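Ops channel
N.P.: pipeline sanity check, posting one input/output pair.
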């Protein structure tokens, strides 16, 4: 029962974190104020309805569902760690006193590589490779995944520091989003 209570608490915490971050993005970053009752209805529906549907339809295969969720988290984790470490490494973003030094940079790079490698191993161990076509499909997905991860590792800071260049070359929908975006948190120098 302790494990079940822990899972419930983790799920509630994750749901609330996702809901609140969605609320702040909607209100602040995209400059779209919403009435409180609409915000509650929309954000709770987005976070809870899919979870309820999955829980009700997959009750008989809960172990498989748990395994799939772990695999998806392993796949997505790299897309959050790499940009975070890229930003943490730059003194212009973090300030000279908080940016990584040489030892921290090397340790972070090693740990990131270890995490990505272990997650890739876990994903590969879950996917059945019964036929050659599955093997070819997995290789194609891995190549695309590595290319996108490489792009993620190289792109974020160029985007941050040359926003005008990125926006000017972007498709009209992206230019519209940048035009709608507002700064929700002031990150200027303290006075």
């Amino acid at each position: 029962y302790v494990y079940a209570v822990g899972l419930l608490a983790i799920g509630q915490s994750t749901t609330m974190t996702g809901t609140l971050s969605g609320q702040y993005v909607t209100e602040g970053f995209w400059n779209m104020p919403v009435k409180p009752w609409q915000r509650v209805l929309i954000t709770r529906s987005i976070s809870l309805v899919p979870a309820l549907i999955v829980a009700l339809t997959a009750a008989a295969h809960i172990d498989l569902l748990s395994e799939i969720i772990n695999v998806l988290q392993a796949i997505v984790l790299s897309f959050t760690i790499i940009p975070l470490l890229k930003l943490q490494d730059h003194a212009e973003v973090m300030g000279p006193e908080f940016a990584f030094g040489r030892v921290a940079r090397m340790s972070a790079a090693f740990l990131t590589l270890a995490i990505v490698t272990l997650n890739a191993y876990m994903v590969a161990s879950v996917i059945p490779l019964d036929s050659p076509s599955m093997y070819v499909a997995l290789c194609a997905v891995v190549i695309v995944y590595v290319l996108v991860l490489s792009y993620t590792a190289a792109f974020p800071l160029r985007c941050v520091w040359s926003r005008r260049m990125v926006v000017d070359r972007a498709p009209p929908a992206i230019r519209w989003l940048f035009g709608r975006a507002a700064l929700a948190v002031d990150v200027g120098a303290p006075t």
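N.P.: looks fine end to end. The chain is about 80% helix and 0% strand.
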